[in-house]
Amino acid sequence: MHKKVQEFNDYRSKMNEKILATDNKVIKRIFNLDTNTFAAGHLPVKTKELLGLVASAVLRCDDCIQYHLEAAKKNGVTTEEMMETMSIANLVGGTIVIPHLRRALEYWEFLEDNEA
């Protein structure tokens, strides 16, 4: 796994464990709601991850963008689908989203390199 991807996943896992260890009922429910929201339902997981990607880009959250890129990749999203999704995010979010598009494409390339 590419170093940048591994570092992101390791940090996310470590901090999620610490957060959940605080035993805060509200935070645990939010984490559970997030997990259940992105599970298969009337919409396939792939579609939900692309929706999450758009929302994350428009909200300009690079950690969220990376998370949804990785989940999208695992669910069979192609580069063309990812770029089309990010084009929607840039249309909705405006040009301020372009720096996040740059970092998203860079992270996507790390994920692609990991597949090879």
Secondary structure topology:
Layout lengths: L2 H19 L3 H13 L7 H14 L3 H13 L4 H15 L4 H18 L1
Helix pairs in contact: 3-4, 3-5, 4-6, 5-6
Describe the structure.
With 116 residues, the protein is an all-alpha fold. 79% of the residues lie in helices and 0% in strands. The chain has 6 helices and no strands. Helix 3 (45-58) runs parallel beside helix 5 (79-93) and helix 4 packs parallel to helix 6 (98-115). The model has no long low-confidence stretch (mean pLDDT 95).
Classified in CATH, the superfamily is: AhpD-like
User: What is the third-level CATH name, the topology?
Assistant: AhpD-like
Count, helices: 6
The appropriate CATH architecture is Up-down Bundle
End-to-end span in angstroms? 10 Å
Rounded radius of gyration (Å): 15 Å
Estimate the mean pLDDT confidence: 95
DSSP strand content: under 5%
**What characteristic shape results from the CA principal axes?**
globular
Alpha-beta content class? mainly alpha
Number of domains: 1
Low-confidence stretches: none
Largest sheet: none
How would you describe this structure in keywords?
globular; single chain; 116 residues
In short:
79% of the residues lie in helices and 0% in strands.
